[in-house]
Amino acid sequence: MSSTDRRPVHVGGEVLASRASGGLVHLSVLAPGIGERFRPGTAVAVSIGPPVSRSRLARRSFWIHEVKPVGGRGLALGLVVEPRGAGSRWLAEAPVGTPLELTGPLGRPFALPQEPVACLLVAEEYAAAPIFPLALRLRERGCAVTLLLGARDEAHLMSALEARRSARAVTVVTGDGSVGRAGRTADALPEVLASSGAEVVYAAGPTPLLHAVAAAAEDHGAWSQVALEVPSPCATGLCFGCQVPVVGEAGSPRSARACVDGPVLRGDRVRWADL
User: Fold this and answer.
1) Most CB contacts within 10 A, which of 98, 118, 148, 156?
2) How far apart are alpha carbons 96 and 216 in whole angstroms?
3) Domain 119-274 listed as CATH 3.30.1950.10
4) CATH code given to domain 9-106
């Protein structure tokens, strides 16, 4: 597919299936034309609520977890939603058949290594959604994949079973110790990174974790890519409402738009202290 074909499209779709799993909701959404353009690390923006309420709620971006064919209807997107605010609750509670307006895929995806190398993938809670298709792509390229997954508790942990199918080694950390180790994901980073021998580290999750991943990767001489979660009001790059402070190619400070220049950025290029 050419670079032109990868440009985002705005389409009408619908909710095909909805499944609650602990504190997360897994949705299957029909989105003609978006699945064909998908690459791990890209997102989709969903217009939230009935038309009469959209003036009060901006669109919401969600990581694409998977793309699967739906008999005779094309490709469906798998989204993972944690109901937290009004927008995510509306989508999580949308019944099957609910019509949706979607734009995607948005942003720059994870860059894949040219040669087979050891890779460590780090993520927490629902933000682990883009990590699973990334793991599959890396394995297709012959890369040795290690996963480090974290969550506050078992209810908010992405599937450990799916993780074990996606990687050669998996470490799970939960804040309350309900699954795997007890503690913080960032605290397990140095040990897992050293044992994996990773040359490339990918991460998705809250900003403190991404900062820790970037720092740990630099200490180990590894290259890092982080998928930032920044509110994207327009999701098209026009409003400049999702700016991220970064270091430019010449070393000077500048801003990047998360929905166009990101959401995946090099960890050593983000100005973490200014984020």
Assistant:
1) 148
2) 43
3) no
4) 2.40.30.10
